């Protein structure tokens, strides 16, 4: 329960501190979007909210429950889940910038006291055992240096019978060492080889698996939508944040997102801590 973090967690925190205000490009949603099919014309922002709903629905939340959001970003999914289900949410992130930005967003949403995002490392969580009714790790587990440790911590702080829903970025094709280095530099560590190893990892941590879904085809449009949004807002962003910062951001994000588009998929796994655990 100590307030400590690994070197990787510190690097992840620095990465998100650096991105900072650029989260506005995606409306504060640091996750992919969801489309039913090629024919689905849902706009990018709505598609990201839709994925929050897709993932959040699997928690089967009830009014008044306490939800833990592991890797909460700037609190956008936490705010939406609190509004939709009447739950209270505690989020953790390793980015100090995100903590401050999440507080601003929570106050703007009128949810002070119901949604809190604080600094905390998922691998050494600052909560006693059995603290939460449900937990979500929405596009955060890919950043874990030690995924088994995160899962063990989530299992510890979840009450018996509590649900846990998480997403993962599996590799869809072999990755070269250079590609692994690009992913690593962008906080994606060791993509699993598919659903089976992910399910096995959650089972080994003591969870009962309820469902596992491969949404790779539903989220892939995210990358083209992101590039279009960046192109559209680039000039404004450069005038506000400086050409150099935007050029560096653009270069880095283009490299990693092109790679994700080609070789990384998307999984959603729903599980439960057994009632007798
Ligand atoms: C891709 S963002 C997802 C944010 C949010 N779930 C969303 O969907 O908008 C990944 C998040 O995981 C957090 N994260 C990464 N490593 C972490 C760690 N060791 N402990 C806590 N949070 C971590 C990052 O700080 C960031 O907030």
3D architecture notes:
- With about 280 residues, the protein is an alpha/beta fold.
- The chain has a single domain, classed as Vaccinia Virus protein VP39 (Rossmann fold, 3-Layer(aba) Sandwich).
- The chain is built from ten helices and seven strands.
- The protein has helices spanning about 5-20, 45-55, 75-85, 95-110, 145-155, 175-185, 195-205, 215-220, 220-240, 245-265; strands at about 65-70, 90-95, 115-120, 130-135, 160-170, 210-215, 265-270.
- It has a seven-stranded mixed β-sheet with strand order 3-2-1-4-5-7-6, with helices on both faces.
- Helix 9 packs antiparallel against helix 10 (about 245-265).
- The protein is globular and about 55 Å long.
- The model has no long low-confidence stretch (mean pLDDT about 95).
- Bound molecules: S-adenosylmethionine.
- S-adenosylmethionine binds near residues 29 and 95.
- It holds the Pfam family CMAS.
How many individual domains?
A: 1
What structural class results from the helix and strand content? alpha/beta
The number of helices is: 10
Secondary-structure arrangement, i.e. CATH architecture = 3-Layer(aba) Sandwich
| Low-confidence segments | none
Bound molecules: S-adenosylmethionine
- Gross morphology is globular
**CATH class bucket:** Alpha Beta
Distance between the termini: 20 Å
Strand elements, count: 7
